[in-house]
Design brief:
By secondary structure, the protein is mainly alpha-helical. 46% of the residues lie in helices and 10% in strands. It is built from seven helices and five strands. A hairpin with a 4-residue loop joins strand 1 and strand 2. The longest helix has 20 residues, at 61-80. It is elongated. It starts with a helix and ends with a strand.
Amino acid sequence: FLKRDRESVTFSRKPRTVYELKLAAKHATEALGEDFDVQKLDRPTVGRIMKHLTGKKKMAPPTICKTIRHLQGAFTRGVRDGILRANPFDGVDLPKLQRKPVRVFSVAEVEAMKAAAPDDWWKTLIQLAFTSGLRRGELENLLWENIDLENGIVRVEAKETGVFTSGQREYPILEWTAKDYQDRSI
């Protein structure tokens, strides 16, 4: 069931999400066995999966939450598609997560980073990170064509696989989409 579900959503999910769905299925299979009847999955059985994740696997609470959410999503799709009668993962109590405080650098710290930067490229990246609110992945996937210096605008856009040339060297461009799949300008 989980393999079929993963194959059905592969076209609409990021490769990393598909990989995480595969891992979630693997963990459930380890806990319950290869031939477990998904129609018999109930709350106590979900408890066995949780015990497996916290016991043998010793996963961190955020990883457990992500794994259970992926399984919950798969079973929700199974109910929606008429394959399953109910989703035993609905209402499961997930481990409590303690959020780390967000680290905000002061102006003096940013200036110190820029002073220690080896070249203008790094200084520009540090300043852009400090002033734009871009996520790390968005910063890492910027191309010069996404930056409008004249108007002070940065465009966050999906990237297709390709190559760009700088000087005599070619560099790969890896496929990438923004976290929320939305292009935006800052």
